[in-house]
Design brief:
Elements (H helix, E strand, L loop, with lengths): L19 E9 L3 H10 L3 E15 L15 E6 L2 E12 L2 E10 L3 H10 L2 E16 L2 E9 L2 E11 L4 H18 L11 H7 L7
Antiparallel strand pairs: 1-5, 1-8, 2-3, 2-6, 3-4, 4-5, 6-7, 7-8
Length: 208
């Protein structure tokens, strides 16, 4: 997700970041309007609506159905507003909380980058589309998202410097879980699977 800097202040949409640790939890959202009201009641700062189109690239030599986002070299090309961002993540999942070490940078010419990616042996294997309402709660960013064709989700993220200690990471994990509870979403609705894997399982999301 990711629209905050290491100190927790909101980034402008499409602003890149590098060498960060992302602590994130996502869950199915059964009551979109109820979650929005809960955020407003706690004084969350509304940051507006964003629309994201993510194109995931994997090794050309590998069957698209067999690409593993946690093991294979994969990167994402995101369109958000007028910006294009490339992101690569090293992922870990524990008890529904995802920890990502990520590097991200902006590109000014998406068509040239797509050509470059294909020339070095990568091809797009799935596309994800998401529309979200974004909020800032302290240093956390919360998105109430509609992911096509999966449904509604809440995503809560805290960004840390890449040198963050285990105690700082643990505190961020407690923070995102606490916010999930305050929004009114039970732990039973936490979704550990990646959006991309769920989209592929439905047989949708093929790039055109």
């Amino acid at each position: 997700m990711g629209e905050a800097d290491a100190a927790g202040a909101a980034r402008a949409p499409g602003a890149p970041r590098t060498n960060m640790i992302e602590i994130e939890i996502k869950a199915w959202l059964d009551d979109f309007d109820g979650a929005r009201r809960a955020l407003e009641a706690m004084g969350a700062v509304a940051l507006g609506e964003v629309v994201k189109r993510d194109l995931y690239y994997g090794p050309e030599r590998k069957d698209a159905r067999e690409i593993d986002l946690r093991k294979d070299p994969v990167f994402r090309l995101r369109s958000e507003g007028d910006a294009w961002l490339v992101t690569a993540k090293r992922r870990e999942m524990e008890d529904g909380v995802e920890t990502n070490e990520e590097v991200e940078f902006a590109v000014s010419n998406a068509a040239a980058f797509r050509e470059f990616a294909q020339r070095i042996g990568f091809r797009p294997f799935v596309v994800k589309r998401k529309k979200a309402l974004r909020y800032e709660v302290g240093r956390a960013i919360v998105e109430l998202s509609r992911v096509d064709p999966l449904g509604d989700f809440v995503e809560i993220e805290v960004l840390l410097d890449d040198g963050a200690s285990p105690d700082e990471r643990a505190a961020a994990e407690r923070e995102v879980r606490g916010l999930l509870a305050r929004i009114g979403v039970p732990e039973s609705r936490v979704e550990p699977r990646l959006y991309v894997d769920m989209i592929r399982k439905l047989g949708t999301g093929r790039p055109r």
